[in-house]
Specification:
There is one protein chain. The chain is mostly helical. Helices cover 59% and strands 0% of the residues. Helix 1 runs antiparallel to helix 2, helix 4 packs parallel to helix 5 and helix 8 runs antiparallel to helix 9.
Length: 171
Amino acid sequence: IGDASAVPALIALARHNDDKDLFLRHGIVMGLFGVKDRASWTQFSDDESAAVRMAVLLTMRRHRDPALARFLQDADTALSFEAIRAINDLPIEGATSQLAAHLPKLGVANDNVERMMHTRVINANWYAADVASATRLLAHASDTTLHPRQRVEALIAIEAWRDEVTVDGST
């Protein structure tokens, strides 16, 4: 409805749902997305409820808001991973450099989901193609605590440094 007066009820519903019903979460996000006064819902970015923070993050994703990079540091890995996905997969301009800088903060990837997060952050460094990104990728490739596949991906990004890739008809 676009009315900020609906935000408290949507936030309360997100808290109550606690991400149990993903269809309901989608409805909450769409409700927040329609609210014109963004400050009325972005104020919940630091809420104690991970479900509320996720609703805010997903709404920011729909807006392609680079401020969602703040969730890269969220203590809840589900939120951090969702921020990584949003920034890399859309991509969200203005947040890619923050995603690239996140590479040293990633720990050892213990499963396929964590490995995919590493791949996305490596990808952000490849797209940035600056000295800081090259330094991060080389450090990642040199880290013997990481899975060899992760190290190789960093080396592949360095090897492909000057390759031009066409995405959706543009370079």
